[in-house]
Design goal:
46% of the residues lie in helices and 22% in strands.
Length: 497
């Protein structure tokens, strides 16, 4: 019987490629289970097999617990009783007593077989995880084993399988069992049914890795793929950059007579690929990404992360693309929100925006339309710019002298303060009712000398400073317009908290 155990261990280990210790542990668990059934009761058993000759011994176990009694006397023993036989035993240790072993017969063998099968599966799963966990972010190839509810199962060889979820498959792609498919490993996860390798054929990274296979200059670092965007199976755009001025990145990726890009297209079920030159200038990059449409003008709005792109009327449909495909891919590629419009629409929008800004300047700065238009033509778009840009920039505007510039800056700052007060009225009431005024020295930019001067004029705390205007504060020695504005805004900060 001992030799039979060794035979089972050796045969299963060789057949499944699993370590012998795993098989021994499975048989020990099966024999322990058989011993529990044989002796009856809710007992705990342990079997120890000699790895050399196959002989085994069975032990009944009790866990050492604290207290005067145990709720499970068949499996537990209190510390005081355990120390009578083994003085050094501690809580959490086990006391063992050898008992008669169960024979490695038909029932034990059947139980061992079930445990062995489970252990073998667990070992195989661990091997899969260990083999593929480091391959996340790389390409793999396998044979289509089966298609389950649209999910494609790939046989990777060596008992390893991968799954391409239905939504990660290229639309309308005809796949049959036995086909050889490539995919991009997105994740290796432990699922209830075992470790699962997840693969994608729609990820932009899949497109990038395919180009790395076809274009050796990418692996050599001469060409870099900056980003990619895809409408899987239909169209894609990639942005490329040459690290060697002698190399044309687009021509290199296209290949002789289009051979390189055609190989990638064939792998992606005919997906058309636009190869775009990356540019560090965002506006130029967007213009490149809008290919094949030609851009007439472009307006950048960095605050909203968007660009208004104007094209000729005949190029409008090409710029937008079927179902908005071209502009959508260009937006994904450049990471800018792109708004496509015709030249006429761009002109109309520009005029509308100009009128709005001119009216804003006329109202806030109390100037006539001509001055507002001059400011817009000079590139100013907000009250904040006029209030805080260096004086030299305003002096560069034709017809502006120091007197006009100073007056405009004062009006702009007063307008900002007025808007802040109007927006913070409720907060002001709360601050007054709570009485949480700051000391003068707590205001950013306040000096001890200025604080003393203010107190002499009955200005005692931040609430008093908040009521002042820039003109009133600049009357004090050492206070310029910039410092006055900063002190007043700091004093009014609680209004907007």
């Amino acid at each position: 019987m001992n030799k039979e155990i060794l035979f089972v261990v050796d045969s299963v280990s060789n057949e499944k490629g699993v370590d012998r210790d795993v098989i021994f542990e499975a048989i020990e668990a099966a024999l322990a289970q058989a011993a529990r059934k044989r002796h009856g009761g809710d007992i705990e058993t342990r079997v120890e097999i000699d790895r050399e000759d196959g002989s085994y011994r069975t032990f009944r176990r009790w866990m050492v617990v604290e207290g005067e009694t145990s709720e499970h006397p068949e499996r537990e023993i209190i510390l005081e009783a355990a120390q009578m036989d083994e003085p050094d035993v501690q809580v959490g240790d086990h006391i063992e007593e050898e008992i008669e072993s169960a024979e490695f017969g038909r029932i034990a063998a059947q139980a061992a077989k079930q445990v062995i099968v489970q252990k073998v599966r667990e070992a195989e799963r661990r091997q899969v995880v260990e083999a593929y966990e480091d391959r996340k972010g790389t390409l793999i190839m396998g044979l289509v084993k089966r298609i389950d509810r649209g999910n494609v199962i790939l046989d990777l060889g060596g008992n390893a399988e991968a799954m391409i979820p239905r939504d990660e498959m290229i639309g309308r792609e005809a796949v049959r069992p036995g086909d050889r498919l490539r995919g991009y490993v997105t994740d290796v996860r432990h699922e209830p049914r075992g470790p699962q390798i997840f693969v994608s054929r729609t990820a932009p990274e899949f497109l990038i890795e395919l180009f790395k296979l076809e274009v050796p200059e990418i692996s050599q670092g001469l060409i870099e793929i900056v980003n990619a965007a895809r409408d899987p199976g239909l169209r894609a755009k990639i942005a490329v950059l040459s690290n060697d001025p002698r190399i044309d990145p687009v021509g290199t990726c296209v290949g002789m007579r289009g051979s390189r890009v055609q190989s990638v297209t064939n792998e992606l079920s005919g997906e058309r690929i636009d190869i775009i030159v990356w540019d560090e200038n965002p506006a130029q990059f967007v213009i490149n990404a809008m290919s094949p449409a030609e851009v007439v003008s472009i307006v950048v709005d960095e605050d909203t992360g968007s660009m208004d792109v104007a094209v000729s009327e005949e190029n409008l449909s090409k710029a937008i693309g079927r179902g908005g495909q071209n502009v959508r891919l260009a937006s994904q590629l450049t990471r800018w929100q792109i708004n496509v419009m015709s030249e006429e629409q761009a002109i109309e929008k520009g005029e509308t925006e100009t009128r709005r800004i001119v009216e804003q300047f006329m109202e806030a700065l109390d100037v006539d339309q001509e001055v507002g238009e001059v400011l817009v033509e000079a590139g100013f778009t907000t009250i904040e710019e006029i209030a805080y840009v260096p004086t030299e920039e305003l002096l560069e505007v034709e017809g502006f002298d120091e007197g006009i510039v100073d007056e405009l800056r004062n009006r702009a700052r007063d307008a900002l303060l007025t808007m802040a007060i109007a927006g913070g009225g409720e907060a002001e009431e709360e601050t007054e009712s709570s009485g949480e005024a700051l000391g003068l020295e707590e205001l950013d930019g306040m000096t001890a000398e200025l604080a003393a001067n203010l107190r002499e004029n009955n200005i005692k705390d931040s609430e008093d400073v908040a009521e002042l205007s820039i003109d009133e504060l600049t009357e004090y020695e050492g206070v310029d317009e910039e410092l006055a504005g900063r002190l007043i805004m700091a004093a009014r900060a609680p209004w907007f908290a």
